[in-house]
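Whiteboard transcription, Tuesday session. T.W. wrote the structure tokens on the left side:
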């Protein structure tokens, strides 16, 4: 198989939310529509995907036969049934890219022909606006060329980072689930703005732009977040009063506990599929 971007066919198997994000990202990046396939369980969803993106929606085994790369994005609880169906039919020269949260590459390797390359990926929903954070890990038989291809596939969705697979559960907790934490924080801050007398739309606009600006500063300044926070925190000022209350309410400890819980849940998902 020639691993040249755009010179091979990619099948998105299980075109739910994450699968659709990947499909749309590849199209925005100029991936030829005739080099993309999609599968889904519901006919109504198949019609929706075909109409929206112009890609051919096929059965799973047709995708396995025709595609060079199988991007599996089903829910973890559906992965066993999927692999029972397609596992014996996957030639060992296909590349399987898993977007299934919590499932290690060896889950797939055990159900595929010996030597089949598998890459594990964790991305997140800001892929919808090309601002995803995608972490990529190679399985036992994946080569440098396979990793480069995976990066080529996900780079249009935002930033990519290679990590050892042993770190993927932590990645899931931190960036995979991460957008939800920020949305919850913004929701709480908007409510606080309303409590302080601001109209909802005004509070929303203030917080969203503040979040965007703060994120860009973190990314572009190269400064440690402590330094950036200290730059806003004047002696005996308003900010330090607010931070004292956050510390009194254990916000930092709550975040640590929350991410540990997410990491542990990812491990539980993997254990359920041993």
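and on the right, the sequence the group agreed on:
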């Amino acid at each position: 198989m020639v691993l040249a971007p755009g010179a091979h066919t990619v099948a998105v198997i299980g075109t739910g939310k994450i699968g659709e994000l990947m499909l749309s990202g590849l199209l925005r990046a100029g991936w030829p529509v005739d080099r993309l396939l999609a599968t889904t369980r519901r006919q109504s969803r198949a019609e929706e995907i075909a109409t929206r993106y112009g890609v051919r929606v096929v059965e799973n085994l047709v995708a396995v036969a025709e595609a060079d790369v199988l991007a599996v994005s089903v829910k973890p609880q559906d992965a066993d049934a999927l692999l029972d169906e397609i596992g014996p039919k996957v030639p060992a020269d296909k590349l399987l890219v898993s977007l299934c949260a919590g499932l290690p590459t060896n889950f797939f390797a055990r159900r595929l022909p010996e030597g089949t390359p598998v890459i594990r990926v964790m991305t997140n929903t800001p892929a919808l606006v090309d601002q995803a954070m995608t972490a990529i890990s190679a399985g036992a038989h994946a080569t440098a060329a396979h990793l480069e291809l995976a990066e080529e596939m996900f780079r249009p969705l935002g930033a990519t980072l290679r990590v050892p697979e042993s770190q993927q559960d932590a990645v899931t907790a931190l960036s995979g689930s991460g957008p939800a934490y920020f949305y919850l924080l913004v929701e709480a801050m908007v409510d606080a703005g309303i409590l302080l007398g601001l109209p909802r739309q005004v509070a929303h606009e203030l917080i969203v732009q503040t979040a965007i600006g703060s994120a860009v500063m973190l990314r572009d300044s190269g400064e440690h977040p402590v330094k950036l926070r200290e730059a806003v925190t004047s002696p005996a000022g308003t900010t330090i009063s607010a931070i004292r209350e956050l510390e009194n309410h254990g916000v930092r400890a709550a975040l640590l506990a929350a991410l540990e819980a997410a990491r542990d849940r990812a491990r539980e998902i993997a254990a359920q599929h041993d």
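Someone added at the bottom: The two ends are 30 Å apart (CA to CA).
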